[in-house]
Structure prediction request, 193 residues.
Amino acid sequence: MTHPKYEKTLVVLKPDAVQRSLIGEIIKRFERVGLKLVGIKMFVPDSVFIEKHYTFDPEWKRKAGEKRIKDFLEKGKELSSNDPIEVGDQILTSLKGYLASGPVVAMIWQGAHAVEVVRKLVGSTEPRSSDVGTIRGDYVIDSYVMSADDNRAIRNLVHASGNLEEAIQEIPHWFSKEEIIDYRLAQEAIIYE
Ligand code: GDP
Ligand code: MG
Prediction:
């Protein structure tokens, strides 16, 4: 097994993060915990690229659909469909429109348990219930119910790989080998040795 300090994860600052001038604030959170930035670029993705990103996991659509149906049931609200795949499709369609609507900043962060640490700093998917102190909890207010009522994707500022397997699939989709920089930070001696 490779040493955990080499673990890499993908972070994408979605168009709302860029438009709200939060790039620096968000990067600061990953830097200050001791993670190392090993890849970064800004571009406008197209919807085919985004669809591929969200469909590495063939179960994602169904799971996202089930999650939204459950959330609506709990809040006593009606959905246009109760078929998880159909609801998942609606989520994917609005996500594609949202993520392809303007520039995003894609980054690779490396360091001990990077996937887990980044998810902890990012917070849970729905900003309404993300903890205070997390990126989604501190910088944005939105909910599944409100975004569905307004027929748009939820504004949650960032994508971060959900687990190691996802990170391993997502990183080569977003970055070529040449775009990933292998270098040493002075602070690594203090953090790891
Ligand atoms: P994440 O890993 O925390 O980003 O969450 P998921 O992998 O479950 O979902 C990916 C993205 O799909 C989320 O960041 C949201 O933008 C969107 N999404 C997932 N579930 C829902 C939902 O129930 N409603 C809405 N509006 N968007 C959702
Ligand atoms: Mg995810």
